[in-house]
Design brief:
The protein is mainly beta. The protein contains 4 helices and 38 strands. The radius of gyration is 54 Å and the shape is elongated. GO terms for molecular function: calcium ion binding.
Amino acid sequence: MPDTVLAFEEPSYSLKLSYGHIGKVFKFKTIQTTHKAKEKNTNNSDSLEFEKQPDNDKHFSKNEYSFKGNYTLEYVPEQLLTKLRVTDDGELEVLGNIDEGYYSLDIVAVDYGPNSTTVLKDRSKVYMFIDNIAACNSYTSKFIRAFSKHYITEETNLITAVPGTESSGQCRFSISHQYPFGVGADFFSIDKKTGAVHVKSPIDREAYSFEDMEEPSVYLKIKIHCPPLDDPPATQPLHLSDVDQIIYDPTTTLVQLVIVDTNDNVPTFADKHIVVGYPVQDVANNIIPKHLLQVKATDKDAGKHGKIQYSLRGNDANDFIINSETGTIYCTSLVDDSTVSKSFVVVAKDNDGKSDGTESTLAITVKFLTFSDIVRVNVHFSTTEDHAAVESQLSEISGVKVMSLTNDVINTFVDGQWRTERMLTVYGVNNTDGSLVPASELERNLGQNAKILSITQLFNMSANSETSTVMSLVYAAMFFLMLSMVAVGLLYFGYVKSQSNWITTFNRTNLTSNRVRFPGNINSEAVPCRSKIADNATVIVENSLYEAIPPKGTCTAAVLAVNNNSSIIKLDSKVSFEDDLIKLEKMDEAFSPTDDLSFNY
């Protein structure tokens, strides 16, 4: 029984490719081999085995045929999954740069047999070696690298950046592409016979072209022409996107020249001299700044060359300390006199502060603030603005330099809802002469702006401790005077008035009067207050029991007073019924205690 088997031409393949080789690199081929089955030498007559027959066997054939199936790659290393593929006709294609090294994978072929019902399948091992050397196709030249990396120090010239390459006298080299390109980028020249690249003008690593590069570099594409051209094309700009994919070309090499930094830049401050404020002792007891200020210098150099350390110099430097890493300055002593000022110098040194570093200075004058120099400002809060941004906005609004002593984010309840605000205690410094701006002027300049929610002046708190003590004594004296006046009033109404005919009170509990107001008889008949007193009730009868005493309240009525002469006088009086007392108060007129009176109301 003849059988058809699919097989690759080779049981395994070894492919050697150059780094940067992109495109179709190899074509796999398969053959059909016919085998004949024979009976195994066993007791089981149904057992068969396949045996490869000699080439002259009539049932054996080995033919290359038109492959109609498909090829696939299996067991592909993870780093090659997106960089390799095989076409249906067996062509292996490289899609991207593959790092130098050894790789292995399987190539699998599947097709139908002669009867179109049998599936034929075979696999072969593929070993790949990626080298970083590319061979030149021209017989007149030798080898050049597909990619090479070199290092040159900035601000140097007249050096060889890329060594030359031996070649036939029939070949010439040129720089076909370059990054950066354009005005001011004519850094190199090339030896046309050897390909050696020389630096002819210094390169500044901190130039604009290298700002966004993690590793500032110049890229060159060097082209070899075999045979040489009479007039090689002019150098063209190279795009950085082309660096990630090196198109395979054995006559071209890509060169990366990494610019090594030198300490060729000094630290710089935004200003040469600044005036800042700090509270005098009395103010500092109420308003406590976190620090005097924070300074910052910048250095364009990279690495240790750009690392800055801060220090202080000057006669008043001992009254302050600075964080050498962050540049934050703190006061170590306070003053009581706002008319004094202090000065010192901040030194910024690069190269991590070492002796061979370069330095620059910033002069600082400290003026001391009273409450008359300070206002409290509340502004709308924004997560995209820090206090420095707010200070800059306030400075623009007011026309003076505004700086903050304190900065807090608070929540306030306004119009039935919570609102987040930034609250700053600020002062102002004139941009022209560095003088302090009065709080009243600063408030006036800031007042008319939608950014600001409220401004509170603090300069009315500037009274010293002696004045505060005097005011406290005055307030205490006024308080005791008021108490004395109240006591005199109580004494007057409690004793003097009780001697007159104005008020008579009776105790509700023991039903006896606490003072005999009139020696005569007092007769009373309840008439108008019917909601409280029964018609036949006896409300007030001196030296006797009381009946039907009404609840707490007041009844105003007309009172008829009858004296000893039987003359009747109509009075406006008021009867008050309190918790423990019954009080008869005559609104006008007075009688002698000797008069015998009758009150009808």
